[in-house]
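ugh ok so i messed up the first submission bc i forgot one of the chains. this is the corrected input, ALL of the components this time, i swear. 1274 residues overall. if the numbers dont match what u have on ur side tell me asap before i send this to the collaborators (the ones from the other lab, u know who)
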Amino acid sequence: MKLLQCPVNGTRPISEFTYGGEYREAPDPQTCSDKVWADYVHNRHGAPGLKKEWWYHGPSGTWFIAERNTLTDSVSRTYLFGQEKDA
Amino acid sequence: MQRPVLRSPAAFAQEALKPERGVINQMMTANSFADPATEAEYASRLSLCDVSFLQRFGCKGPAAAEWLSAQGLPVPEQANHYVQQGVLRVLRLGNSEFLVEEEAGSEQLAQLNQTDVPERVHAVLRNDAAFVISGPLVSELFAQVCDIDVTAELEDESRLVMTMMAGVSVTMLRQKSAEAWQYRVWCDGTLGAYLWQTLLTIIQELGGGPVGANQYFKSI
Amino acid sequence: MTLRIAEKKGEWINRDMPLTFTYEGQTVQAFEGDTMSSALWAAGIKVLGRSFKYHRARGLLSFANHDVNALMTDGVDTNIRADVIPVSHGMELFAVNTEGGVVKDKNRFIDRLSPFLPVGFYYKTFFKPRMMFPFWENKIRKAAGLGKVNFDYPRQLRPKRNAHCDVLIIGAGPSGLSAALTAANHGKQVILVDENRYAGGSLGYDHAADSSTSDKLETLLKQVSEHSNIRLICDAYAGGYYGDHLVPIVGKEGITKVRARSVIVATGAFEQPPVFRNNDLPGVMLGSAAQRLVHRYAVKPFHRGVVVTANDHGYRTALDLAAAGVEVLALVDMRQQSGDEQLAAAVASKGITIHLASCIYEVIPSSDKLGVAEVVLAGYDEQTASARFERSSRIACDGVAMSAGWAPAAALLYQAGTKMRYDYAVEQFVPAQLPEGVFAAGKVNGVYDLALRLRDGQRAAADAVRYLGGQDVEQIEVAQSFQLAPSHAYPIVHHPDGKNFVDFDEDIQVKDFINAAKEGFDNIELMKRFTTVGMGPSQGKHSNMNAIRILARIRQLPVEQIGTTTARPFFHPTPLAHLGGRGFHPHRLTAMHEWHVNHGGVMMEAGVWMRPAWYQPQGAKLTAQEAVQQEAMAVRKAAGMIDGSTLGKIEVFGQDAGAFLERFYTGKFADLRVGSSRVALLLDEAGVMVDDGVAARLAEDKFYVSTNSSNAATVYREMQRNLQLWGMSVTLVNLTGAMAAMTLAGPASRSILTELTELDVFEEAFPQGAIRTAEIAGVQARIMRVAFVADLAFEIHVPSSSALHIWQNIMKTGQPFGLRPFGTDAQRLLRLEMGHHLISHDTDGLTNPFEAHAGGLLAMDKAFFTGQRSLQILAAKPLKKQLVKFVLDPGFSAELPKECNLVINAGQITGRVTSIAYSEYLNRVIGMAFVAPDQAANGQQFEIRTDDGLLVKARVVQGSFFKLSAQ
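and heres the new structure output, hopefully the right one now
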């Protein structure tokens, strides 16, 4: 099975992790239209490519972001939220 | 009212083995499971010991490291490391969560548990099931219950890992000892009975067995 | 006459340990180390099975587990691969798939019916007349399939183990052995695995009568066994390749999951048969099979035989046969010329006649059709793939060794994502682009010369070491050249009467491909499925390459444009016990678990937890229904207590704690008074209800939040994530396991509690929704008034380690008041009586608060909370459905409708039942259901359709169930 590298705990088998959905910036609920909001809530990018994803390491309770090419299933880097620049 | 005598989270799974028991740190504890010769035999192969009775203190928060230091405790600099000072062991579990455990009945930990924590430090109530796994066959056991290469990950004695064992989340470290095959495992107490039973089944298949607290804490 | 010959160096049998077994009732002598087939063959028994479709007699083909001609049962296990499984003393073996024994198989006449059973016949027959179909179905089901399942097969535990290494090398033939030594010498930890009983691969049998080969093998094996960096595992195969170099190694005792940092695939190649009429008779076998018989088991494949070949391998085989004492009557080469001149000269020097540009047109069976009588030789036209009869002859013999080429054993390479290309120099697929960390060596890499294979192993290992970050690793080149390719491009001999087999598992002949193409099934995927080529137990190991070649010729396309089908794990059939392993099923137990068990608790799994569903009082014999009603009645009339330790419990600290909860949940918490609690309703971004717990304020900067048991992990996780996104100054502590909880409920609960604590628990001091901290029986506790199962109820939270003490004290104190423990079944009934919905039981993945009467929990005037924006949109739309409480008619005594039974209105579905139960206390059947908004008014009638199609009348209740009149 796949291995994933938690920025804090190191490389672990994927069974230790929970997928948390694609990392997406929400539109400002106060100013966006209903249409934009509904698109954000219900629609997702289906096309394969490099995506930012939320992943959670269960045993340590660590949330982080992984950049994964969903076509080749290879992860280029992982980092804690807000620490993208140091990754 | 009388303070209640506590029970180890793994006690339920130990009933059938009818250990000889005593109270340590207010917890009814299995002191031995068999005569010393038998327990020594287990220890020479692979043994499992329930040390849930050890005193613990947990805390987390942005000022936790600072505060522990101020209490005179050694604080590991990096996450997933631990430091041993005398009878105290300080584990850094995440960026700002700590577990302090005490080997024998010193007063330091009892005091810590009474001390009020300041702002930006939060006490974490713990209910650990804690075991010592020891013996030359330990890597056989790990091969069956852990996907990661435990012995390689814990070759550095100051490291700890948070991973899965037999399907449950655990914290593990290698304990400094003469034989270099002694490991410590902690898991959530509600899974203690399950983990004890699961590990013991495999340990017994490998020719080992359970040992009581007397094995390690003869002075108590 | 026995075919066993004198002792061979390196043989796998132990002549000091003879044993006997029976086959089809006949006693057979063998040695320890013999496989079932080798022992039978040595004894002159050549009919090892009957083929799947036509029930033709079969013997050895590959003798390497690349075919299933010999499948046997020992009475316990079935479909045993007799070619490769060792025989043991006392075994009683029978061939599978026969009726009346393998020789007198009653179904052998099917072979004569074969003209009526062309490829795909079952797609076109048996369904007219329709009523006859069940008859045919029954017949076909009995005829199809191989061995019979033994339903008393013993249950065995086969724990899985994990292993780790730097380099995993699959295949311990010459390439694998030399790769292992190179990698190990560079300091790498190597696991070397081979499916055979002993390592060595073709070095152990492909000698061409050159004894230096076995010396070479002995040296390599010694070096490997003495090297501390190499762990050699034999008798185990690599099942498949999984992400990031995870390879399960399947051995007899179980699976070892190897996580390697790099993998070298040195798996060799499957020998492919030339295709000619009756190439499947017992006695006709692949050249490598003959060599294995001779060198591993010291058995002659036949006494007097012919070798037919379309490559140089036949020459090597002929030399090994001659050295073993076989009379080789001819070597038939389908090519215009021999390849290696030295080999040809060696063969000729043994007095063996070489027939170039010739083929075996057909094999003539013996009169009993169970063996070879003679072969018909003819000239061979490579262009038309047909025999030429200008010169033909017959040779009487009892066996044929046949060779035509190789197909790489590349399944694991494909699974790893390797791009392969067809190399015309070797006439086989070879790796073109390997994934990172994966390497190939030897025959699977298209390298055939022995010296070059050894070198290729070194090269692959050097590449692997370099990949792992090795410095100063030598660059090794391997260059090879051939006169003629090791594989033949089209080793087929057409015959008007067919029975020239391509796939021996499925009885597929050449004309089957032609017919399939005629029907339009002419691409490789369709061809495979229509003909079933490669779909048998061998999964195409001995047949896929020939199938591709035939299809390419039919389509007039180059081989590489035909493509290959996908080889999926597992490489060989793997027992379910191995795949199951030990199976870890964690269970969480509360601190009171033992108490529940000792007091008649009927324990059931609630997620990962064990909880009592109900209790069987000591000495009683209640049904579940009776117990549940009694427990519920106790709560209504006296008192009951339930273990609620499974609740999620989270402490939320910090100066932003209140603000955090206001963003996370729908309600207001910033202004919540210390000592009070509020419902904490959690929505997702779409406004759908996710969890409803309770949040209580213990201090200005400290909240204690509880969640539904099933949502504990999810809520904590989402809190953690949102905390990061919102950047607030809050600390979260998950106390779900560290704290235990129990709810004491009912009119007597206050009286019981007051005896155990100094706290004032009366109404004014301790109103609904309040939280207090106090000592109960000497232990610090948090107590909340929560009206879930009853109006008067106290939810007590204590550290788990002292929970049992509290529980026991309460039970003891409560006994005179009639206190009873109650389980989850009674809890479900009690909350229904109280009119409370259960999220994800009464609500689903689409239910928003407006549909569930939870509008009152929404503080829409807050600046932000999760789901708020969606609720704004939803609020403007008309409701689609409403969750309502209902009752059935008083005195209803028919069978209860079930949860999920539909609500029908004028022939349309307008909703469904979500909860329903009989309440003894109310003497009524009560429930909850989704109905259309216009059916939701108080007193409104609607109908529920039961499973039997009956319509049951129900009536909406908008107020409390407790205020129902007898109406």
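quick check: Chain A touches chain C through 21 residues (CB under 8 Å). that seems consistent at least. Residues 3-86 of chain A form a domain with the Folate-binding fold fold (CATH 3.30.2270.10).
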